From TrEMBL:
The lineage of its organism: Bacteria, Pseudomonadati, Pseudomonadota, Alphaproteobacteria, Hyphomicrobiales. Keywords: ATP-binding, Nucleotide-binding, Transport. This is Sugar ABC transporter ATP-binding protein. SMART domains: AAA (SM00382). It is found in: Cell inner membrane. The keyword Transport applies. It comes from Cohaesibacter celericrescens.
Amino acid sequence: MTALALKKISKSFDKTQVLKDIDIEVNEGEFVVFVGPSGCGKSTLLRVVAGLEDASAGEVWIGDQCVNPIPPSKRGIAMVFQSYALYPHLNVSKNMSLALKQEGIPKDEIAERVAEASRMLKLDGYLERYPSELSGGQRQRVAIGRAIVRKPKLFLLDEPLSNLDAALRMNTRVELANLHKQLKATMIYVTHDQTEAMTLADKIVVLRDGQVEQIGSPMELYNNPVNQFVAGFLGSPAMNFLPADIIGKDASLSVGIRPEDLFLADDGPLLADVTHVEHLGGDTNLIATVGEYNMTVRLFGQHDIEPDQQVKLGFDAAKALYFSADGLRASS
Ligand SMILES: Nc1ncnc2c1ncn2[C@@H]1O[C@H](COP(=O)(O)OP(=O)(O)OP(=O)(O)O)[C@@H](O)[C@H]1O
């Protein structure tokens, strides 16, 4: 069943249009990630779903109801923000239960829900602590717990991990994926981080300049992007783009080759000047130039290559993608 449908949503602030004709369907239980560069309209779209902003045109459907006239508090949603927005004067237990109390839910049910959420989030030992006595990761878990106890139809998460350091971000990402599995809840998650999108999503919505570029599973988008923008946005290090005549193809096209699809080959068609080498232990990244074009090569394992060295590169031709001058996919 469809949990959320956005139908031709547009949004303008004064004369500036920031969302244009957005159509998205989210199935029940899906983890959907809105991803795109800064300013593309991700947060505004989430706020329109929440009812914190009105759409200038179009409809928001939650389940079988058009919620345009319905205020945020009645939409059956719970939001988690980047800033945890916890109440500093309330302990963890009270932060989690406040909204339920305001809704008039009986005390023993509140206690049950708080106990269950804190068990899931491994916060059971911290219920009496105040936010100032918690780490950033714990605070974010409380914010997530506060959403869980409300048993919403839809979870809306706006960059919830971006205040955490890299290691904690990765742990919390895994916890969030597990939580989604346990709750079987519908989640809409906004991020500009393509790794979060790739690792968390059942379905990714790539946005640019207020428009949907492509919707699909992470692997569909990675392997079969509709255009150069999507191809370049998903994947780290990013896809390399070169004029196709460098590999003997039509000069009006660009060829896109992912860093991991390049390899060292004495008879390879690309002569690369290595400018920098990143030894990652398990992998080695070469930053290089081919003619005037920059390239990143991801080699499996450890390699004894120095900056200023020249290497010959081959690539997996079956995985190369071609793009016409307007950025759309083309056949070679
Ligand atoms: N209340 C507002 N009034 C005017 N312009 C706004 C308002 N809110 C957002 N915008 C503009 O709308 C555009 C989209 O903003 P939005 O915050 O949705 O982008 P985003 O993709 O979430 O970016 P980021 O990743 O940087 O948070 C931006 O150009 C922003 O300046």
